[in-house]
Amino acid sequence: MDPEFALFLDETGSPKPNRKDACPYFGFGGVLVKRQDERVIRDRLDCFKSNWDMKSETLLHGSEIRARKRGFAWLGKCSEEEQERFFDELTNVITSLPIILTACVVDRQGYLNRYEAQYGTNTWEMMRSAFCIVVERAAKYIASEGGKLMVYFEKIGKKEDRIIKGYFNELRSKGSPFNPSTSDKYSPLDRNEYAQLLRGIEGLPKTRSELQVADLCLYPLARGKREPNNRAFQSLKSNRLLINDRIEESEIERLGIKYYCFDT
What we know:
alpha/beta, six-stranded mixed sheet, 12 helices
């Protein structure tokens, strides 16, 4: 049987191409996992939560942890030493996991500068572009491993989930949606290749451990282009968790993390 991989996806920032949005980017991506390693991820996260007297169903939500709010308001009441220990242990857990990180990060202003004049109100939402890029690159990587890919995303609502599944089904039935003349250098897959490589797609609740890991890792990946020295990004990079570290340098443009529309 072909080895099966799972891609767990999350997003950071708004996918709406709005010039007034305070967040300078939109990021979409997550963790690529071999099926046999899923239990390892869940067990290690549960152990970390238990060590900090958290219930296993506690969500490790990155924005709450960084802000010390809501479910992690208690963290803000800890001493600086305890807070530092918490972040060190969380980093150690994440960097010990058998995962590969991939993403597409879109610069908001660069995206609008490139496409708004051309398409006006018909400009794609950044979600569609990012989704297609991430899934295609993951599928190419899996093809090099002789495997198949199952895609998972965080369930949000019926309408939003239907849109995401629509993007996926379009890839399998029609192939890449990008202009062939400008995307040819990336060696896009055709619909037959997608049909062979992509097993399916499913929305899951955020209680799934792998989605929590995707949430925690995507934020530093999104910041990595503008702030390559940020501590979390450097931890992921130094532990060779980025997909760029698992492929040849010549393959990064075709398979690696995509920083899209960073024109300046």
